[in-house]
Amino acid sequence: MQPNFSMNFSPQALIFDLNGTMIDDMHFHAKAWYQILNDDLNAALTWDEVKVQMYGKNGEVLDRIFGKGRFSEAEVLELSVEKERRYQKEYFPHLKLLPGLADFLDNARQAGIKMAIGSAAIPFNIDFVLDNLNIRPYFQAIVSADDVTDSKPDPETFLKAAELLGLAPSACVVFEDAPKGVEAAQNAGMACVVLTTAHEKEDFGKYTNILRFVKDYTDSFLQEILPVRV
Ligand SMILES: O=P(O)(O)OC[C@H]1O[C@@H](O)[C@H](O)[C@@H](O)[C@@H]1O
Asked: Which family does it belong to (predicted)?
């Protein structure tokens, strides 16, 4: 399905990916994965290979690299939580919202826009971000790795978020930083704003649902997509 949005498209809901989109933390995920995959599991991957493989649920990352069935469910859970423990320990001193996001969330809420999180992260990490930054009340729905069968680029995460908000996919705009996330939004029939925290524009060349590339939430385009308050 190809979304077709005019320039004056005004969404009723915003669905935010979390890592790399609300916070600039993808380097810390890559570092934690690099250690687990190479030092603990002897995968012998380069830094760039880790970055390419690092999308979707933690179990999906392990399946892609080692093949399905290499680890038991209990082992996947333990590796997944251990990876996030290492990530949280290293990233916590740097934890903060991207520039302009605090104001953008306030403005969107005042404009009556519904907001959701649609992330491949496990609840342990989503709670770490939302509760340490005190931003949970902004979101009417949260879809985590544990809420879907297949993560991004499958559209399930974003479709579920729209359903929980009670809105059609075409009424939602997704905020993403990763090519596989933009692909998931496209598969869900949703337009996307791309945060260029972790990827270059060129990495998104094949997608047709991108409204705009922004460095952070101070970009004036983001005011244009909120309805004008009277
Ligand atoms: O979907 P989000 O919020 O960008 O999260 C993606 C990341 O979430 C992390 O928890 C996973 O370990 C990563 O593999 C994944 O890339």
From this structure: Belongs to the HAD-like hydrolase superfamily. CbbY/CbbZ/Gph/YieH family.
ipTM of the predicted structure? Answer: 0.91
Task: Show the tokens assigned to 141.
Answer: 């729905």
CA 143/CA 215 separation, integer angstroms:
25
> Does any ligand 1 atom lie closer than 6 A to the CB of residue 19?
yes
Torsions phi, psi for 8 (to 5 deg):
-100, 20
Tell me which fold the domain 13-24+97-224 belongs to. Answer: Rossmann fold (3.40.50)
**CATH code that applies to domain 26-93:** 1.10.150
| Cβ-contact 13, 60 below 8 angstroms | no
Q: Which residue owns the Cα nearest ligand 1 atom 12?
A: 58
pLDDT in tens, 60-81: 999 999 999 999 999 999 999 9
The verdict on the CB of residue 20 being under 6 Å from ligand 1 is yes
Contact at 8 Å (CB) between 116 and 163? no
CA-CA distance, 69 to 91, in Å (whole number)? 31
The DSSP 8-state label assigned to residue 147 in this structure reads G
The full set of domain ranges for the chain reads 13-24+97-224, 26-93
- pTM of the full structure: 0.94
